Write the C-alpha cells for this entry.
Amino acid sequence: MSARIIPALAAALILAATIAVASHDQLFDESVILNVENPAINYFKAPVDDPVARLDRQLATGKVKLEYRDGPLGYLPSVLKNLGVNPDSQILVFSKTSFQAAKIGPRAPRALFFSDDVMVGSVQNGDVLEFAALDPRQGFVFYTLDIHPSDQPRFVRRDVCIQCHQGPATLGIPGIMVGSVFPDAGGMPASRAGNPVTDHRTSFQDRWGGWYVSGTHGGMTHRGNAVARDPRAPDVLESQGTQNLLSLAKKFDSTNYLSGISDIVALMTLEHQTRMTNLITRLNWDTRIAANDHIDADVEALVTYMLFADEATLYDPIEGVSTFTKTFSARGPKDKKGRSLRDFDLTKRMFRYPLSYMIYSESFDALPDSSRAKVYQRLFEVLSGKDESPKFARLTPADRQSILEILRDTKPGFPK
C-alpha cells in the first residue's frame, strides 16, 4: 500500500486542517501530540495484546480458522464472531472518509461494527477489511485483512494509519474519532465547512453528517441521512426525508450487507466510547512518559467526561431499530439490585446511571497504579458528595448513591 494512501478507520475521517475540536476543559491541552517513539511508549515496536493481535496469533498456530462465505460478505461474519463483535452494532457511513474512498458513497456506505475494544470496517467491493483494535497500554492499533480467500488469512498491521489517527482530534495519541461532515451528492466532504469531531457533549443538531441514522428522536434534528446537492452551498444539507427514519431502503440497496440498519443508539454509544478510550490512553501515556505537570489535568478531564458532566441534553426520547439497545445493556455486569452502567435512559440523557461502562475495560485496568488511584479518588469525592462543584451539578444525590453502589458490587479494586 502506498505511503501516500493513508488508511483510516475513524467513524468519519476528516483531514486535520478541517477538524474543529472544541476544548471543554481549559486545563487539558488536547493539542499536545505525544511522541510515539518515546522509550516509555515505543508504539511501533513494543509487543501488543489487542483483540486482533490475539486472533492473528490463533490463526498462525491453526487454533482458529476463519470461514469464508461466498459472495460479498466473505470473511466478515467469521471475523465478527471470532472477535466477539455483535452484528447488531452495525452503523453506516457514506462520506468518502476512508482510504477506500473511491468505493464509498451514499449508494454504497461503509459498514462499521464495534465492541468495547475493537472496530471492524467493511467496504462494498473493497480490497481489505479494516480494523482498529485497542491495546490496553498502547491505545488503538490498526490492521487490514485481505478480503480474498486464502489457505491462511492473516492480519497486517498498518502503522501508517496514525498519520490521520493521531492528532488533536484523538487527544494526541493513536485513537479513534467520530466526525460530522457536510457531504456532497457523491459523499465527498466539503473541505471548508464546519466538520466537528463529535461525542456525547456535541449538540444533537451537529451530529452525524455523512452517516446513515436509523431510529426515532422526536423533534430533535441531526445532519445524518443527508447530502448537500447544491455545489454553491456545500454546507446546506437536504432536509426532506432525513429525520426519524425507521428504514433506509430508499437510500441504498442493503442486499450485500449484514443488515440495512445504522442504529442511532449504536452511533451514540460509539461517540461516547471513542473519546473515553482516548482519554484513558492519554492518561496512561502521560504517566509513563512522566509528564507530571499534565497528570492532574488528564485525571480531571477523564473524570469529568466519564461522569457525563457536560453531556448534551436530549429534549425528546431516542429509540433505536435494532437489538443493540437490549444486547448492549445485557452485557452488564449488574449489581445486587440488577442495575448496570450499561443501562440506557435515552429520554433526557444517554445512560440511566451516568458513569462510563469503560471503567470495566482492560485499558482502564492497565492505567498505572498512581494514576488509577487518582481517578478513583476524584470519583469518590464527586460520588460521595464531597465535591459539589457546579461542574457536577447534574448528578443528583440519587445518581451519586446509585453509581457508588453499582461500583462497589461490580468493580474489583474500587476502594471501599
User: Anything to note?
Assistant: The first helix runs from residue 51 to 61.
